[in-house]
Structure formats: C-alpha cells, structure tokens
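User: What would this chain look like folded?
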Amino acid sequence: MQGEPLFWLTKIEDIAAQLEHIYQKAVEEFEKLSPPVAHLAPNELYINQEYFLRKINDSQVVEVSSQLLQNYDLSLDFEITPQHALSKSIERLLEEWIENYQKGIKTFFLSDNENQHKRMEKIMSDLLVDYNRKNASNYDVKELFVPLSLNLYLSPRER
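Assistant: Here's the prediction, encoded as structure tokens.
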C-alpha cells in the first residue's frame, strides 16, 4: 500500500486469532510436503498474529468494537441503529423515513452503486406523490434520506 493506510476494524483480536489459526494450518501442511519439490515456507506466504498486531499498532486504526485493542483518549458514539425488518415493504420504509425526519433523525442510504441511489430516489419520489396527496403533506425525497457512496477498495492483489 502506498502512503499511510487507515484501517477501520472490528474485533481486532478475533482477526488476529483467525490469522494465527490459518498460519498454523499452513505450517502443519508445509511440514507434510515432500522435500524434492521447492515450496515457499508459510512465513513467505502468510502473516501470523504477531506480525498483524505489530503492523496494526504501527498504523492508523479506527477500532469499531466494544473490546478495544488499546485505550484511547477520544471515542465516537454514532448513536446509530440498523433498519428495522420491514418485510420488503417499500411503503413501510417510506413511512419510517418520514417518522425519522419528523423526529430530526437523519437517514443514510448506503450503496456502492450510484444507480441504486437514483433508483431509490425515483421509487421514493413516486411513492411520495401519493403519500403527500393522501396526508396533505409536502415532503420532498431529498429531505428524507441522504445517499452515501459505500465504496470498498481492494488492493490489486485482492481483486
């Protein structure tokens, strides 16, 4: 990676334990290999728990967890909740977004696809026409939710 990476991680200890488990399995399999064929050693192919924790501690990390690796002077509480189960009812989703708006709660719609944002805006705009007429209201779709791009970037090796 170029530059100073910033990692957003949850349950760092679980990640480290899983890496160690995979590394140890690789070591066991490597020891079973026949010597005439040249094989790369596990430490040339995998990272272990110690290496991971050392590299993470040397990097910028945002820990998203209740079990933190370190103690921090600053913590952020986003006070967010996941969307309720709406039984695939887009009308109920619209009502929930209106209720959130009335309570002063911002609703964020995350997608890694710009077309999905446009599709949701179109669907909600169409539904709002009927809702506003029935309820003598004047809501605008842009008041009800904020579309956010959720792009996950992988290094070329991970693609």
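The chain has two domains: 6-74, 90-149. If you want, I can go into more detail on any region.
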